[in-house]
Amino acid sequence: MAPVPRRAWPRGWPVLQGILPVRRSEIAGEVLAGLTLAALAIPEVLGFARIAGMPVVTGLYTLLLPMAVFAVLGSSRHLVVAADSATAAILAAALIRLAVPGSPKYVQLAGLAALLTGGLLLLARVSGLGFLADFLSRTILLGFLTGVGIQVAVDQLPGMLGITAPGTRTLSRLAHVVAALGRASPATVAVSAGAIAVMLAARLAARRIPGALIAVIAATAVSRVADLAAHGVATVGPVPRGLPPLTLPALGLHQAAALLGSAVSMFVVILAQSAVTARTYAAKHGEAFGENADLIGVGAANVAAAFSGTFVVNGSPTKTHMADAAGGRSQLTQLTTGAVVVVVLLLLTGFLTDLPIAALAAVVFLIGIELVDVRGMRRLLAVRQGEFVVAAATAAAVVVLGVQDGIIVAVAASIVDHLRHSYRPLNSVLVKSPMGHWAPVPVAPGERTEPGLVVYRFGTSLYYANAFRLVTDLTTLARDGGALRWIVLDCAAIGDVDYSAASVLAQLIGQLHDQGIFFAVASLLPPVRRQLERYGIRGHAGPDAHYGTAGEALEAYRAAEGGDGLAGQATPAGPV
């Protein structure tokens, strides 16, 4: 599919990339998609406000100024930026120690957290750190979101049952819920069960039916008619009417220091989740992906959240899927959703007063269950057991330690997973197949490309931690299997050589020379060749020790063995 044309804006003014061009024939579809997104997203963001410990109306606020700011400044035509379960859970874990949930101080601190997170995102854009999104792998995100889903679902059980469960850790709260099951409120349980039944029935009928909205409206209507509050069913209570006021977040240095760690955690989640989601939908529709512009958009959206009385926003995979499935093809869909929310805030907040908390908890409970990707984990177990262990460990860390510590484990697991692949590369000896093509075979004692020659391919970049593999393999090959006259290091997979690995390589070349073995390199990328030259490694025979391909090295070896004496003219590598 050809990329969607973008309007050429003057340099330094990259705005409205997610909206323009607007085609008249698509406006009606975009508006309809926006109405659908509003119907699906409004109950969801009310639930995310509950996860964050914020007043429920602040969930609606995330669909206003933050969403509009991203629509203007972001690059993605599809990414929906609003409240999100993962960042809401991290925020709640950070703020619960500093203020009473829902209190004015709590709201101000949530604004400060959004400001810090937005500042980090903008700093990442200025510093060119957008590439960091690539280091939180799909495997890690799968485990992290699965853990978040379990935590979110467990956290909703007290509200669904009408009981209290003290504690901030998931397992301890679950234990308290089990212990208090006998004190559950029958009326509250009935509301929760009814809401879940409505949502599941709507989902079975058609995914585009706004089951959560229907459940919320029905529960609120029943609550008002039957006076459920008099039967012990907790309700949301008064909800402020009108647009969000522009307010200042808490701005104390001590408070900022207390929230910085959590802001970094949310920054990492937003960086990875927003980039993955935007990239996925850009590829689906054959569009360009502007990672840096999206960093500006999401960062500015969080700054807008900080000054409009709400909390951290993120690129939401679920709401982006909702908008795309409804036919949304630009940020005009999201702007339509914002317009719907304005109407709700101006005219319909009174209706939310009687909304049972149990119904809202049921909505969030199902959102949490959906985040638990059992199918994805099972597939990972079937095709990549090592990565399944990493994903499962990440999920367990979120459940046992909490979301904030879980993201630290997730980042550490990403780094370990990356190092694991590069630490044990798939090295091989290249041999000629019967058809005359190069074929890799495992490194083994006595393995030869042909008698007297080994063409050895190292499977990744050389750095301090994996250089010993090079030494071990070449030492083994040189020691076993009969006389060895040439070793050719095929560097096709080597994109970088750090200083420590270069020192090891230089020492190895000297040892091979002492044994009378000629050393050469092939398929050396120009930047890597310049690196080796800076390190003082120039090979045994000047430029002749560098061959363009393994085939050229093989021909040179055969010529030398044919009697021109090249192998016998070896001189030490440059400075060792």
- How can the largest sheet be summarized? 6 strands, mixed
Strands of the biggest beta sheet: in what spatial order? Answer: 4-3-5-6-7-8
How far apart lie the N and C ends? 54 Å
How many β-strand stretches?
8
Element-by-element helix/strand order: HHHEHHHHHHHHEHHHHHHEEEHEHEHEH
Q: Structural class of the secondary structure composition?
A: mainly alpha
- Shape, principal axes of CA atoms: elongated
Give the radius of gyration: 30 Å
Relative strand content: 5-15%
Whole-number mean pLDDT: 87
Count of the domains = 2
Weakly predicted, low-confidence segments: 1-13, 564-576
Can you describe what's shown?
With 576 residues, the chain is mainly alpha-helical. The chain folds into two domains: 24-419, no CATH class; 428-569, 2-Layer Sandwich (Transcription Regulator spoIIAA), CATH 3.30.750. The protein has 21 helices and eight strands. The strands form two sheets. Strands 4-3-5-6-7-8 form a six-stranded mixed β-sheet. Strands 1-2 form a two-stranded antiparallel sheet. Strand 3 and strand 4 (438-442) form a beta hairpin. Helix 6 runs parallel beside helix 7 (170-179) and helix 6 (138-161) runs parallel beside helix 16 (385-401). The longest helix has 32 residues, at 253-284. The radius of gyration is 30 Å and the shape is elongated. The two termini are 54 Å apart.
